[in-house]
Structure prediction request, 555 residues.
Amino acid sequence: MKTDLEIAQENTMEHIDYIARKARIDKRYIEYYGNYKAKIDLSIMDKIGQNDDGKLILVTAINPTKAGEGKSTTTIGLADGLNRLNKMVIACLREPSLGPVFGLKGGATGGGYAQVVPMEDINLHFTGDMHAITTANNLVSAVLDNVLYQGNELNIDPTKVVWKRCLDMNDRTLRSITIAQDKKTNGIERKDGFVITVATEIMAILCLSKDIFDFEEKVNQAIVAYTFDDQPVTIKDLKIGGALAVIMKEAIKPNLVQTLEKTPVLIHGGPFANIAHGCNSIIATKMACKLADYVVTEAGFGADLGAEKFMDIKCRKAGLKPNAVVLVATVRALKMHGGVDSDHLEEENVNALMDGVKNLEKHIDSIRKFKVPYVVAINKFAKDTPNEVQALMNWCKEHGHRVVLSDAWANGGAGAEELAQAVIELCNQESNYTPLYELNLPIREKIEIITRKIYGGNQVIFSEYAEHQLQQYTAMGWDRLPVCMAKTPNSLTDDGKRVGRPENFDIHVSELRISLGAGFIVVMTGNIMTMPGLPKKPAALNMGIDEKGKTYGLF
Prediction:
């Protein structure tokens, strides 16, 4: 079988003008980045803003494992499947981070014959959005440290700076550093650290803004530090909201690309779902909903993270109403949730599969709480045995869950036509989308609701510091914000080694972090980190350019 990169390189792309016409985008709103990429000017919303919304479909998954789930592959395959059924469809995806690309996880443009292209560009520098976000974030840090050096007129306590620098790369050595060492002219020496670009509040604000002016308004509210008497210092206090808007004026525009089968795709924004809210931008999703009859989007990692945040944060803030949910599972991943290690996944093991299906069962239970019609998509792998596939199909049917076998990886849109038809039928049903909790509940209660109803846990154990923050945030009037849980994606618990559907567990909250610009509270659980590290053998070791000038080893 050819690699994803080989399949993408052999594909003949259509000029972006053709894709724009297919997406009902007038040429005057297109800003070209070569022949196969473009940005869409936001003024298009003046023309299409009164259009009826298309049907919005969320693709989510079980807890990820090394065996693979194929959420992006299913998203892209489903969009191509709808296209093959003559439906006007646009897919909306997140932008990949370079950290996973060169680390372990890989890119985020699908796989096999369900891919978005040009995949090399998208997975690397694309149209420069990640660079803009990184630059904007680090300008805040530079100006803040300059204020400290130039007399500290804002009375900032250097030990209470909460804004971190960032880099779009996995680098554990930057998690905790000391800056301005050696000379007084280097600045005020203090402890600092880096987060990965996709974990920054700038990224979250980009994805939750409606235009560049809304971005500036939101970013001005972001808290960067506290004074010696514990008063918050914001970006507005630094007087650089306008400069940040200038940096982000192009990045605020969605990017238009295509699938291998020429289905239009908007890729915009890329927050991780384990340490951020995990959804592409509201701008791109709402634009797609005004252009297309069907919009297929995804949320990062499993339904316990991405889907919950999509429903409770993104849809609530944007006024979006999802019409259907596709819950992706694989036989291989469910066997791992049933206790099989990665060396024995190709061996038939129906018993382990049935043990692991409890993880799928919990995610179905969670999705049903949002009152949106759903279908289970079994993403087919070549080594799945007929007995295993049939056992999983039977379990779903016996428990009243609609289920479809999807083979988009091997067959593209043709392998997802049955799934597409199921989604069309779901979208004809009534969606009674309801967020999980009311915003007027106390912070503690919102966290406890997610723990019980989405994770299946017992109680939440707050550290002494987190308990203090609960009181502080409530006193500040921040308790009416939604919460963004920062948790391992590998388990329903806060311990990534506990697979399947654990019972009788608690969630441990170490600290809270206010993202006032983005409009949510980040809740740090377990040992979650906002700057990942590289594995022992990162993917970067296998990459290069051959004598013909072609990239190899990217995936």
Observations:
- Residues 96 and 123 are 6 Å apart (CA to CA).
- The chain has a mean pLDDT of 96.
- The two ends are 13 Å apart (CA to CA).
- Residues 129-240 form a domain with the Domain 2, N(10)-formyltetrahydrofolate synthetase fold (CATH 3.30.1510.10).
